[in-house]
Amino acid sequence: MNAKHTGFSAIELDRIIEMAWEDRTTFDAIKFQFNLSEADVKALMKKELKFSSYKLWRKRVESCSTKHAAKRPAEIDRFKCSRQRGISNNKISKRR
């Protein structure tokens, strides 16, 4: 991972990891929000997760067509789930 990407706060790291685990969130969305490439996200996940969790995540990402914008079906044209309210400042509004 590049040295410029190591200065994330704990909240930002949690959000990046959460976005990486979400099937519908593409690597492009993480790049847009945090300026991390796919390789940077993989390096961050390897550093921050237990090795067994990292292996599970990598296996899941490899088989998940929605993580890469080029592989996504055309009808999926957004970064977030339709049931999710708004995202502002990396805080997801709770469903009420």
Overall description:
- It comes from Flavobacterium procerum.
- InterPro entries: CHP03643.
- There is one protein chain.
- With 96 residues, this protein is mainly alpha-helical.
- The chain has four helices and two strands, in the order H-H-H-H-E-E.
- The chain has helices at residues 10-21, 27-34, 38-48, 51-63; strands at residues 87-88, 91-92.
Overall 3D form = globular
**Mean pLDDT, as a whole number?**
75
- How much beta, percentage-wise? under 5%
How many distinct helices? Answer: 4
Distance between the termini: 38 Å
> Which strands sit side by side, in order, in the main sheet?
1-2
Model regions low in confidence, pLDDT < 50 over at least 5 residues: 87-96
Quaternary state of this entry equals: single chain
The secondary-structure class comes to mainly alpha
Order of helices and strands: HHHHEE
Kindly state the number of beta strands.
2
Q: Provide the gyration radius in Å.
A: 13 Å
How would you characterize the largest beta sheet? 2 strands, antiparallel
- Roughly how much helix do the residues carry, as a percent range? 40-55%
Per-chain topology:
Layout: H1 10-21, H2 27-34, H3 38-48, H4 51-63, E1 87-88, E2 91-92
